[in-house]
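Request from the bench team (R.T.):
"We need a structural guess for the complex before ordering more zinc ion. Sequence and SMILES attached. Just send the tokens back."

Command: build protein-zinc ion structure.
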Amino acid sequence: MKIVQIPLTSYQRNDIVIWKDNRDGQYSVKSGYKQLRCIQNIQQTTGPSHSNGSKLWQQIWAMKSLPRCKELIWRASKEILPVKMNMKKRGMNIDPICPCCGEEEETTIHALLTCEPVRRIWFASHLNIHISMDTPDNFLCWLERILAHPEKDTMAEVFNMIWAIWGRRNAWTFEQQLWDINRTLAKATSISVREAPRPAATKNTTPPKWKAPPRGFYKLNVDAAIRRNLGTGLGAIIRNEKGESMAAATWLIEEIEDPSLVEAAGIKWALRWTKEMGFDRVLVETDSVLFVNQWERSQTGISYFADIVKECKHLSYAFSLCTVSHVKRDCNVVADFLANLAFDFHENYWLEEDPPGTSLLISADVTHAASVALE
Ligand SMILES: [Zn+2]
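Reply to R.T.: structure attached below.
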């Protein structure tokens, strides 16, 4: 996995956004579209049609399982999990052999179901599933069979198992840590325990909602996600007054342990990119309270974090209007999703098109925005 090594602050060194698809490192719309077509091709050859995809997503979403498990299932069914074969198909020069068994090519179905040690885990689980030799070679086909199963609770357990098996695969691939059968099953159980209803949810408070910007303005939502040994994923999306995605981006940068630094780095990257894309009246939203507090007293503080915020402030002067405000996580779900998508897509851009897996999240935000307008 290649992680772009870039200094976080340019106070000592010049720091620029590099567009890797252009020889001179400069972003151009042409190269952006080229990249986009490439992704569309991958989706068309491997994924379900759009309407089937939406139906499938609705079914997945209805499961009694944590969002992170559902997202994993969704990515597996869209063939965008970073298993060796998918990375090879995306043009990476890597050995496609499964790192766990060393015998077969690592496809999605192999990693999650048919790899020999994985078969044993499925069989040892209390679901007692025998992964037969005639398992379809496509995860989506297998999933459709599974989703036809009447027992929704069992399905949730299947989802949790897949999540644990994927965790086992990553622990081995990236940390050379071997989870045995018991440990993998314990992981699956631990996530189902966390599914217990949250006591904090109350009937009287309606959850905060994402709001579309006024006409003539653009809203930029930014978020970041840290994964140990994999780096820091950054995600950003620019939407218009109708809540439509004008542009979205993911970046994968070096691992940063401090969450406030990560959020600040994300905003810095996103501001640069927004300016380069030509958007000029921008309302930025982040779920980092620390960033917004520091932004408001911009010129004070001597720390790495304060330096990055100061740099963001300087970038904001290049816009005719640029405000930064704090929102609850519920208002930042698309950016959060994108930050996690960065681990699959690294540096990537989508122009006037929804990135994979985000359409329903984006339209849910629009529905919210519409109901806010009616209230
Ligand atoms: Zn294997």
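Two things stood out. Residues 136 and 145 are 10 Å apart (CA to CA). The longest strand covers residues 218-227.
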